[in-house]
Design brief:
- This protein is mainly β and 201 residues long.
- It has 3 helices and 13 strands, in the order ααβββββββββββαββ.
- Strands 2, 5, 6, 7, 8, 9, 10, 11 and 12 form a 9-stranded antiparallel β-sheet that branches. A 4-stranded mixed β-sheet has the order 4-3-1-13, with no helix packed on it.
Length: 201
């Protein structure tokens, strides 16, 4: 993955576990139903039906503890930014808001890449143009109150190299695939994970 090669592995999980004291819960590894993964064609929530477009990122909701239990992230979990960067956009999504951060690390295409943190409540003082350092808390996970499809609280993360075709101020979910050459966020996160066989609540 291009972003992983140019940016290196993120310490995202370490930051999230520390900020939310999940080590006290015995956090060991992320867990995913197939519908939570990058490129998934089906939903893992609601009617489990087909997505209108393949999944643009990864949904973080489940993790396992040292006893092998599957536990859930809940509303209010603090969300750290993956890399040093600048906040460039905050947009509405179907559970809350999405925060977009630009990271100017150089690479073969000499274009910045973006990370997108969806279904959140941004920090009240978070402003467009704010500089952030890897690990800074930028938001919390939103509740499911706005969802019409029985989605559960979770953090959606997308990332990709910018195309240069859409200015930051016009970025929306509807044009994300034009604006970004999307890549799998799991390739940039240095953490173990497991795939669960059966979708569930």
């Amino acid at each position: 993955m291009e972003t992983g090669r140019t940016a290196g592995k993120s310490r995202f999980t370490e930051f999230l576990v520390r900020e939310n004291r999940l080590d006290g819960c015995g956090f060991e590894a992320w867990a995913f139903w197939p519908g939570m993964l990058f490129g998934a064609a089906v939903k893992w929530w609601g009617d489990r039906g087909k997505r209108t477009v393949p999944h643009e990122g990864v949904d973080f909701r489940l993790y396992t503890d040292r006893r092998g239990r599957v536990l859930c992230l809940e509303e209010g979990i603090r969300v750290p930014v993956m890399y040093d960067g600048v906040i460039v956009r905050i947009i509405d999504d179907f559970l809350g808001k999405s925060v977009l951060a630009a990271h100017g690390l150089s690479g073969p295409l000499r274009r910045p890449f973006l990370t997108v943190y969806g279904h959140t409540v941004p920090r009240p003082d978070l402003a467009i143009g704010a500089a952030v350092t890897a690990g800074d808390v930028i938001a919390t996970i939103a509740g499911a109150g706005r969802s019409k499809g029985a989605a559960y609280p979770h953090l959606h993360v997308s990332m990709g190299r910018t195309s240069g075709l859409v200015p930051y101020e016009r970025l929306e979910w509807a044009n994300m695939k034009v604006a970004l050459a999307l890549s799998n966020p799991l390739d940039a996160i240095d953490v173990p994970y497991r795939i669960l066989e059966q979708e569930g609540p």
